[in-house]
Amino acid sequence: MQKYHEFFLKSSLKNQERHMKNLTYLMSNGHSFMVDDQNPFVISRIDLDHITRVGQLVCTLFRSTMDGLKASSPSPVSSVLFDGLSADYQALGIRHPQCYPVLTRIDLMVDTDGNWKIAEIDPSNKHGMGFALATRYESGAGERQKLLSLLEPHVRQNDITTIVIGRKESFYTREQKYFAGKLQEHTGRTIDVMPEDLVENWVNSDSLMLDFPICHNPAAFKKLSRFFLGTGPGHFINPPRHMLGGKALMTLPYEHEEWLESAGMGESEIVELRKYLPPTYLGPFIGKEVFSSGAKGVFFDAVGKKIVFQKYIPQRRFSLGGEERFIRMACHFVGSSLGELTVTATKSLPVHGGNDSINYHVVVKE
């Protein structure tokens, strides 16, 4: 694989003083969201081109997958994508198959050779947009935001847009309210945030829905389902496509290449996507030591579990604020257009958003 531009070596922050700010207004229960609001994370124009291309390829992957599911029912990959998803959400996933997710988050990491690699693909998770915008605004770059501008044409279709927070998403309520406030300020439209337990009594049939979260309240699921099926998919920016947010999607370019081609994704696009996507396969697998003997050195830990196996990617450490840290870049796309980038850095793997992480706004060095 072609070695990418040595972007971080030229933009190291090791000699810069760290300026930390805890955005407590985004968090609850004593959690922290630490931002270095003085030292942005710098990438090159070449890096931006790679990140943008990843979004375009993933968008094509979504479209081809939905077109393939529409063309053949049941599809050869249905059992791969839908396994582990409740029957109710499986049924919704194939309704209005001509409608694709608008909002997608792709998490990227950097290997030891400086190559971009995909860690996560998720068109069913709205979390992080508030964090990303807050990091940008706290860093003084709010006037250059694109995420809200890209969403504006969708939101302006209706006077009200509603964001439903599932029970298991309650941790992100403040973050989503921040995002809603910024979107309302930008568009002049009303943006409501509502916990799923209030959906049952929700009566605004003219609202645009941001997405369809996993609901644990049966009444909430029933109400949103009727809304999706009755009003049409145009009332959801992200229709219920939860199967595209499962890790099994990342196995398709490796295990179902011919099916993707028959669904419209070009062979060259699949090959190009695999340059960014670590080899990913659906189990079950057993592990064996190279010189295992009999049952010794044989591991059955993953047998009987629905597990995706992905090649481990050794990741580069970066000197940030005088400390060596690993990074993960959250890339928020609207369609195939890049809307926002944020870097989270931690001292150990896997990179996570815990209290010891530091978040950076990303800027492009011309």
Produce the secondary structure layout.
Layout: H1 7-10, E1 20-22, E2 34-36, E3 41-44, H2 45-71, H3 78-82, H4 87-93, E4 103-110, E5 116-122, H5 129-138, H6 147-155, E6 160-165, H7 173-187, E7 190-195, E8 208-209, H8 218-231, H9 252-255, H10 257-262, H11 267-276, E9 280-282, E10 287-293, E11 296-299, E12 308-310, E13 318-320, E14 323-334, E15 337-346, E16 358-365
Parallel strand pairs: 2-16, 3-16, 6-7, 6-8
Antiparallel strand pairs: 1-2, 4-5, 4-14, 9-12, 10-11, 13-14, 14-15, 15-16
Helix pairs in contact: 2-11, 5-7, 6-7
Brief summary of the model shown:
With 366 residues, this protein is α/β, with parallel strands linked by helices. Helices cover 30% and strands 24% of the residues. The strands form four sheets. Strands 1, 2, 3, 4, 5, 13, 14, 15 and 16 form a nine-stranded mixed sheet that branches. A three-stranded parallel sheet has the order 7-6-8, with helices on one face. A two-stranded antiparallel ribbon has the order 9-12.
Structure, explained:
Helices cover 30% and strands 24% of the residues. The chain is built from eleven helices and 16 strands. The strands form four sheets. Strands 1, 2, 3, 4, 5, 13, 14, 15 and 16 form a nine-stranded mixed β-sheet that branches. The chain has a three-stranded parallel β-sheet with strand order 7-6-8, covered by helices on one side. A two-stranded antiparallel sheet has the order 9-12. It is α/β, with parallel strands linked by helices and 366 residues long. 38% of the residues are buried. The longest helix has 27 residues.
